[in-house]
Design goal:
Blueprint lengths: L1 H14 L10 H10 L14 E2 L1 H15 L4 E5 L38 H13 L4 E7 H7 L1 H14 L10 E6 L17 H5 L8 E4 L7 H10 L4 E4 L6 E2 L18 E5 L8 E5 L1 H18 L4 E5 L2 H5 L3 H7 L2 H4 L3 E4 L13 H6 L15 H7 L4 H24 L1
Parallel strand pairs: 2-3, 3-4, 4-6, 5-6, 9-10, 9-11
Antiparallel strand pairs: 1-7, 8-10
């Protein structure tokens, strides 16, 4: 077997092949994201516009694909348009790639609804370092079914360092239709659990999960993730259209702050009544659009943090991390998440904070089926549910502080 592999290498070298002038240049992508200090003009969004996280991700990948001459190969589990991954192939030949009859296409057909096979093929393509494979499906399915391919890709990238040191060669696992706002498809598809399978579950630097809430965060997060050259990038993007928020008018931090992984979304204007940590788009929109006005009416003012990528936050220095989210805040904060409770343990460290933290399984069951807003309300994660939990949290903090003073 070794002799035959050696002979095959010899035959290949004798062909003396040269790269075509039309061949993609994946290094162009890395060059773009390293130079990027702001969102490219073609990807900028205006406050008040209606868009989707999946659509903005697709356009971002399409921009990178065109700029690199086609360095991305894409595939989806029967959901190419539904996940908006078709946007990544705009400007290239229509139809599926065929090396002989359609070489200018960048869309692969890999066995239909088969996330595990798709992830294996795409990670294999990425391994050679000339392309980045991008696969999309429901987060509910691609996170677990792509997990083995992702893990082996991370292991292989680490092992390669022994003989061929250099940046990891990423592939992108698009966890689409994530969160409870996919409620019409029911608990089998609108699944809060996939993030827990990937986030902080790989050696540092090999996997980066992205959990944007606002489409304006897509470019900063993707650029930061690609700059760090992990083995796998897993963006979690929701399905519904949302209004692009006017972050400045709302007193929210700029979307560019998301590139640090965790950031202070909003500061209390005066004395803070507590700290809230939020992760997931549907819950964040409910907080900004519904809960904030209710809190203002009650005179409750909070420091608010958002988790856009636990792994990007981990890549910061200890001093930077402490400057953004010190341990003293973690010891008193509460959380709001559209994912599972354990994804909050890192950020919420007190018994009180965890007892009032809201998550989709707070009622001890899977939410049912229906319009996204109704499912979020059923889980107690809408504005009224968030307000009730925050009031309990603030009142408990007040009682605790009063007790300490009396003693």
């Amino acid at each position: 077997m070794a002799d035959r592999v050696t002979a095959a290498r010899g035959r290949l070298h004798k062909r003396n092949r040269r790269r075509s002038r039309k061949s993609p240049n994946v290094l162009r992508i890395m060059s773009l994201v390293k130079k990027s200090t702001s969102t490219p003009p073609s990807l900028e969004l205006s406050p008040g516009a209606s868009t989707t996280l999946r659509g903005q991700l697709g356009k971002t990948l399409g921009y990178l694909n065109r700029e690199s001459g086609g360095a991305l190969f894409i595939s989806a589990a029967d959901l190419l348009g539904s996940t908006s991954l078709n946007e990544a192939a705009v400007g290239f030949a229509p139809g599926y790639f065929n090396a002989l009859s359609n070489p200018d296409s960048r869309t692969l057909s890999i066995g239909g609804i088969c996330e595990d096979a798709m992830s294996g093929v795409l990670s294999g393509i990425s391994t050679f370092g000339h392309h980045i494979g991008v696969g999309a499906s429901y987060a509910a399915f691609i996170a677990p079914l792509g997990h083995i391919a992702a893990r082996l890709h991370a292991i292989g990238n680490q092992a390669r360092q022994v003989l061929d040191p250099g940046p990891y060669r990423p592939f992108i696992l698009v966890c689409g239709h994530a969160g409870l706002k996919t409620g019409e498809d029911g608990p089998t598809h609108a699944d809060p659990q996939p993030l827990q399978l990937l986030q902080e579950n790989f050696p540092r630097g090999t996997m980066i999960t992205l959990t944007p809430w606002d489409s304006q965060e897509i470019w900063p997060l993707m650029a930061a993730a690609l700059r760090s050259s992990p083995a796998i990038i897993a963006p979690f993007v929701s399905r519904p259209s949302e209004t692009v928020p006017d972050r400045k008018a709302l007193g929210l931090a700029p979307a560019s702050d998301s590139a640090r992984g965790m950031y202070k979304l909003r500061s209390a204007n005066g004395r803070s009544d507590g700290s809230i940590v939020i992760q997931e788009s549907g819950v964040a929109y409910a907080f900004v659009e519904q809960t904030l006005p209710l809190l203002a009416a009650k005179g409750i003012d909070l420091d608010v943090y958002y988790v856009a990528s636990a792994e990007l936050f981990d890549l910061l220095s200890p001093v930077e991390r402490d400057g953004i989210y010190p341990e003293s805040v973690a010891m008193h904060a509460m959380g709001l998440t559209g994912f599972t409770l354990p994804t909050m343990y890192r950020w919420i460290r007190s018994d009180l904070g965890r007892s009032v933290t809201l998550h989709p399984f707070s009622h001890g069951r899977y939410p049912g089926s229906g319009p996204g807003a109704r499912v979020i309300a059923e889980a107690g994660l809408d504005g009224d549910g968030q307000l009730a939990a925050i009031v309990r949290y603030v009142e408990a903090r007040t009682r605790s502080a009063t007790g300490v003073r009396k003693s």
